[in-house]
Specification:
This protein is an alpha/beta fold. The protein contains seven helices and eight strands; from the N terminus they run βββααβαβαβααββα. Bound molecules: 3-methylbut-3-enyl trihydrogen diphosphate (IPE) (2 copies) and magnesium ion (MG). One 3-methylbut-3-enyl trihydrogen diphosphate binds next to strand 4. One 3-methylbut-3-enyl trihydrogen diphosphate binds next to helix 1.
């Protein structure tokens, strides 16, 4: 259910889909003289908070970038730490998310993941499949270029079988064959920690997204910062290539 929320001055436009690049856990820990894992643990609390805020604000889809296809480059110990936290999060929070009517979707490559992680991801999706509340999209082992390549491979297989002509491939067909099929493009992408880059996140879906980059580190992200980002989004004029400000998105999956 989406609707206006009251900002300090005026009602603000609530995006249907907010995607967040949760960055800065390591720096948050380093600033406290602690190991990076301490920041990741604190980051999970910020995730819980962001889910609650998204529900309270009436956001319909919340996508969280949890682990990128490039994050395997980190030291083995940190990778295991992050895998452990994801498992713990699903084990501890699934029942509560389910009772809050949250539907979980996982995007990213499944190939190469260990069986215990795969099992938990599938359990989370399966348990919450029929829920009608917030759709929580977790981008895990996700890279946008990898997602597009996997989508192209699916389409190419259909072309090779003669089911579809190359000229018949449209933007909508690509959208239907990538991990985010059925999920509208995000109107708003937030990145914490002061970095102004996408880091291989939602490259196809972000064609007309608004970006809000904030300096705060992910473990410090709270409801006030979320609301400030929504207020900033409300002040943006979206034109989609035209000359006038429009509220309705154009595009293949909007
Ligand atoms: C984000 O924080 C969490 C993940 C990428 C999993 P970082 O771990 O990237 O923290 P910084 O950017 O090094 O501070
Ligand atoms: C992006 O953050 C990935 C996630 C938030 C999961 P990174 O910290 O990995 O990105 P770079 O390396 O700074 O671009
Ligand atoms: Mg980072």
């Amino acid at each position: 259910m989406s609707g206006p929320i009251m900002g300090e001055d005026a009602p603000i436009k609530t995006p249907r889909h907010v995607a967040i690049i949760m960055d800065g856990n390591g720096r948050w820990a380093a600033a406290r003289g602690m190991p990076r894992g301490f920041g990741h643990r604190k980051g999970v609390e910020a995730v819980r908070d962001a889910v609650k805020s998204a529900r309270a604000f009436g956001v319909e889809y919340l996508t969280l970038y949890a682990f990128s296809s490039e994050n395997w480059r980190r030291p083995q110990e940190e990778v295991s730490d992050l895998m452990g936290l994801l498992k713990l999060f699903i084990r501890k929070d699934l029942a509560e998310l389910h009772s809050a009517d949250v539907r979980i979707r996982i995007i990213g490559a499944r190939e190469g993941l260990k069986n215990d992680i795969l099992g938990l991801l599938e359990e989370a999706e399966e348990t919450t499949r029929n829920n009608g509340g917030l759709v929580l999209v977790i981008a895990f082992n996700y890279g946008a270029r990898d997602e597009i390549v996997r989508g192209m491979q699916k389409i190419a297989r259909r072309v090779a079988k003669g089911e579809i002509a190359p000229e018949a491939i449209t933007e909508a067909i690509l959208s239907e064959n990538i991990d985010t099929c059925d999920i509208p493009d995000p109107e708003l992408i937030i990145r914490t920690s002061g970095e102004s880059r996408l880091s291989n996140f939602l490259l196809w879906q972000a064609a007309y997204s608004e970006f809000v980059f904030i300096d705060d580190l992910w473990p410090d992200f709270d409801r006030n910062l979320f609301q400030a980002a929504l207020e900033e989004y409300s002040r943006r004029e979206r034109r989609f290539g035209g000359v006038e400000s429009v509220d309705i998105a154009v595009g293949s999956n909007s």
